[in-house]
Each structure stands twice: as C-alpha cells, then as structure tokens.
Amino acid sequence: MSGTFLGMPGNFPKNAEKAVQNSQLRFNLRKATHTIRGKRASVVAELPDWKELRAAAKAVKDETLRHLDRYLVQLEEAVTRAGGHVHWARDAAEANRIVTGLVQATGESEVVKVKSMATQEIGLNEALAEHGITAYETDLAELIVQLGDDFPSHILVPAIHRNRAEIREIFLEKMPETPDGLSDEPAALAEAARLHLRERFLRSKVAISGANFMIAETGTLVVLESEGNGRMCLTLPETLISVVGIEKLLPSWRDLEIFLQLLPRSSTGERMNPYTSMWTGATEGQEFHLVLLDNGRTDVLADEVGRQALRCIRCSACLNVCPVYERTGGHAYGSVYPGPIGAILTPQLRGMGSELDASLPYASSLCGACFDVCPVAIDIPEVLVDLRAKAPHGAAERAGMRVAGWVLGDEARLAKAQRLASRVRGLVPRRLPGPLSAWTDTRDLPEIPEESFRDWWERHERP
Amino acid sequence: MSAREEILGRIRRAVRDAPEVEIPRDYRTSVPVDDPVGLFAERVDDYRAVVHVLPAAEVPAKVAELVRGRRMIVPDGLPDEWTGGAAGGAELSGADGVVTGCAVAIAETGTIVLDAGPGQGTRAQTLVPDYHLCVVRADQVVASVPEAVARLDPVRPLTWISGPSATSDIELNRVEGVHGPRTLEVIVSI
Ligand code: SF4
Q1: pTM score above 0.90
Q2: What is the mean pLDDT of residues A150-159?
Q3: In angstroms, rounded to a whole number, what is the distance separating the alpha carbons of residues A84 and A91?
Q4: Residues enclosing ligand 1, CB less than 6 A?
Q5: Nearest to B158 by CA among B107, B108, B106
Q6: Which of A325, A374, A380, A384 to mutate to test the pocket of ligand 1 (most atoms within 8 A of CB)?
Q7: Total count of domains within chain B
Q8: Domain A12-298 has CATH 3.40.50.10420
Q9: pLDDT recorded at residue A6
Q10: What are the extents of the domains in chain A?
C-alpha cells in the first residue's frame, strides 16, 4: 500500500493525548456515540432474528472471501455484459492513475464525489489535483471537512468534531455566495450547502463514488446514503466512476436481503437509511467504469486470523461503543479507518513499519464491546491480540501498550483489566508482548484531564 | 502480468488453505404482519413524511388537491387518475414536484422502491424536484426486506426511499431535506 497519509502523524498515544485534551471534541464524540448507540440498540431489538441475520452475514462474507477470485470474475462478466467497463488496480497509485486517465478522457477538469472511504484511502483527491482536476466532496460532512481543510474523524459523521459555530465560520469563509446573515441553525447550514452544491450537481459531467456492495451474480452496485448527494452523483453526470475494494462483493442478489437489514440498523440506527441506489452497468445512457481495488487487501486475506477484517461493512457500530474511541476521536488513529476497525485494518493494509501503525493494535482495552455489536461478527479483540504478537517490539510498543489504560483512567481500568485477563488467556497460546503487565505499569501516568460539562458550557456556550 | 491476473493470483494463494463455508439462512424470509398497510403508514410517518391511506376511489381527488398550484413532472405511464389533472411536462430544473407510482413498498421499514418502470419516471425526475408525491397500491406493500428483494429485478435501476432526504451531520441534529426532495408525501390506495 502506498504511503498515502490521512490524519495525524506521530503515534496513537501521542495523538490520543492531544485529543483527550480537546473538550469540544470529547463532548461532541460522546454525544454522537451515545446517541447513535441508543438508536442502534432500539432498532436492533425490533428484529427477533438479529442473531440469525448476523450469523448468515458472517458466513456469506466468509464464503465470498473463500472464492473471491471466482466471484470477481463473475462480477466482471456481469458488469461488462451490462455495458460497464471494469478496471483492476493493484495499489493506490494504479487506481489513481486509472481514474485520472478516465477523467482526462472526458476532457473535464472537475468531478463531484460521493463519500467513499476507498478513495480517501488511496488519496484520490490529491492525485487528481496533481493533474489539475478538482474533486468536490458533496456529502455535507465531507464538505465541511474539505472546506475546513482538515480530516474526517468518524466513518459515519466525519465532521463530528466541528460544532455549528465553526461550521458557520467555514461556510462563510469558503462559500462565496453564502449571505453574511447565515445563522448557525443546522437547518440553515444544510440549506446553505444545498444551494452551494445544486448548480454543481446539475452541471457536473463526471462523478466518482464508492459502493457499499457489489453483487457478483448480477453486476449490481449498491450505495446507501442519507442526503441525496449520492443520488445526484450517481444519476446526473454523464460518466460515473466507482472505486470499490475487492472485498465489497456479495455472491447473489438475494444476499442483499441480509445486509440491507443489518447495515442501516447498525450504522445510523435507522430501520432504513433515506436513500439506497442500485444500478447495473451503464444505466439510463450513462457511461460506467468500475475500478476494483486491491491495495493491500490480498495481504489481509492471506492472514488466517486477520482476514476476518475484510468482512467489515463499514457500519461504524464498533466506533460508537469503543471507550477508547469515545475519548480520543478518529484523528488519533492516523488513517481513514478510525476506531476498533481501524486498529485492526490499518496495520494490516499498511503493514506495521511505522511507529503509528505498530501502535494501533494497542489502541484498545480489549473490552469486547466492538465484537458484540459488529453485524458481521468480526472478533476485533482476537485480531488485536494477534497483531500485538506480530508487531515489532520496541519504543512503539512500550508507548502503545499503555495508551488504552491511560485514556480510560483509573475507574474503568480495574474492571477492564480483569475482563481483559480472562479474555486474553483463552485467545493467545503464544507469548504475549506484555500488555498485561502494562496495565499495572500505567498507574502513575497522567489522568484524562476531566472537565465537567458545566465547565465546558461556561467556556463555550454562554453568551 | 496484468493487474487482473496478479490480483486473482494473489487471492488464490491467500485462500488456498481457507476452509469451505456453509451459509445458515435461519433468518426470517417472510414476516407475518396482520395489517401491512397500517404498519407501512406508521413507519413512513416515523420518517416525518406525510402519509394518507385512502380508498382507491378517493385517490384521484386527493392527488388533484395536492398537486394544485405546483409545476409537476408527470412520468410516462402514470395512470390518468393519479395525475390529478396536472399538466405535466414540467422541465426537470423548473419543476416543483413529481408524482409517481412505485414498484414495491416495505411495511417493516417504511420504504418505497422505484424501479424506473411505467409511471415512475427516470431517477433524476424523482430526485431534482423538491416535492415527491408517491401513490402506492395496497397490493404492492410487502412486510419485510427479503420479500421486497424477491420481487425486484436488479437489471432495472432501483431507488429505495425511506422518508425525505436527511442529514445528521451538524452536531447530530436531524435536518430533513438536503439534496433530495425535502417533502415526501405518500398515498396508499386501498
Ligand atoms: S468492524 Fe464490524 S462494527 Fe466495525 S465498522 Fe466494520 S462491520 Fe461495523
């Protein structure tokens, strides 16, 4: 995987230290994660067969991965038959080259984009910019992030670290047509974004998307979204380019009956997200290109324990229950994939050559909450422990090991450590790289700078 | 070696020793619901869309009432009694609204699915206008997602709609209506 870097440099512990000192971030994160968590729990409880859906989803994904070669070829045939074009990219550089070439062939120098983690992972916007092509993000949160010149902090709500006053400032500064009288009401801010993007949607000739699912049997691509910017991008432009990781595949059309129940409920805590678009090949006169992306995925696939990370459907449920994520936010993970899934996916995709990536498997207390909520039953603690065993030992490890304990503080530590001890014992026959002893070593580390809500309110909200 | 061959080769090597997998499909593929239309209406309402459940004979008058004064897009193949006498033919960018039928509706999730079939318009026609009025026949309402998937044809472009467009991106406050129609109104014809 190329060294595309998104997020903070450094290592997780250092980043975490900075993040936990940012009260705004911690307050927003806590509110967001707890709200979504509650909504998720209530809509999941509505389905009496959640357990069976989860078991089926896990097996479908494992089966797909087991025969990924066959299913990809089947997908390619189906997409091609339906008038689409399929491209294969070994790594980020190749994917960026393909997409750049496709955009250049249209003669356009602007593209609209619908939020896609795969294109963030490969640094597509930056690569296009080098060739004089401007990519406009259209998801409201991505727009806030892009205009504010910073990085997404949550898979689902990437701008959760920004409050309404900051968003208003960003819009006033970066969207010239926005009236000075703009209020910081969320509805007014959304309206400003609507107006800002509408012309662009109607005028754009090329769009770039990712996809939540691809169906091998039929060649169908599926995108779930809320705002309608996805539909705008997928529908209006003459050329559509979708960049999708090879693991996003499902064998049959019927499999959607499982995932369309699991994903919205796990993700936004809704029975269904507002819009889901499905299209097969070239649709309604559009030209369609599908870029299949490896970029380290086949390395993950080769790892017996780690390959389960490829089942991930990016719902972000694991972020919302993670006590470490709640306190540090997404930026500390130094990658497009934050939270528990990032802690197991990033070191596998990029390798553990850097200090940051080697410290990621330690960004967890192994409490297991992520596993419990994961709709495809990825045993994140199991993969974390396995990665810890593989991580190069040294400074990064020592710094990394203490982070979860430090982030969580004293109250939680004892209970977690006990749970950790019992959990880890069953999981690792190999030598542990010492995380257990680290728990006792961390006692004299600084506590999280606790600031009560009232203090925060005094400083930020009072007129 | 081409990228395609190389990636396929890497995959084959990676999974050589991986076990075969059985898929347990023990989840519900149909859901017993006493009153699918009632449940559908309730769930659509939960999304803050407007719902009317009416006898078929009253639908034309209701449509006429709702489209009055609006420049409406009327897609090809929409039954005459659902046009509400709207002149139709509004240009995409100048239209205030669109009136359509649908392919399937799902009670459990309050979802409408359009498949670009007769009376459903192109994908753009149900996206660009700010108001979407959708007429659903009672026999198009299924109870659950699996029953809807079974009825749909993936060769057609499909749009699943559950309430008006929305965002929770600003401090997690839900705001209805970003880029899609800000008002979704549904008539279930029974
Ligand atoms: S690991 Fe599981 S819970 Fe986390 S984002 Fe992926 S699918 Fe969702």
Answers
A1: no
A2: 72
A3: 22
A4: A 266, 312-318, 341, 373-376, 378
A5: B106
A6: A374
A7: 1
A8: yes
A9: 40
A10: 12-298, 395-460
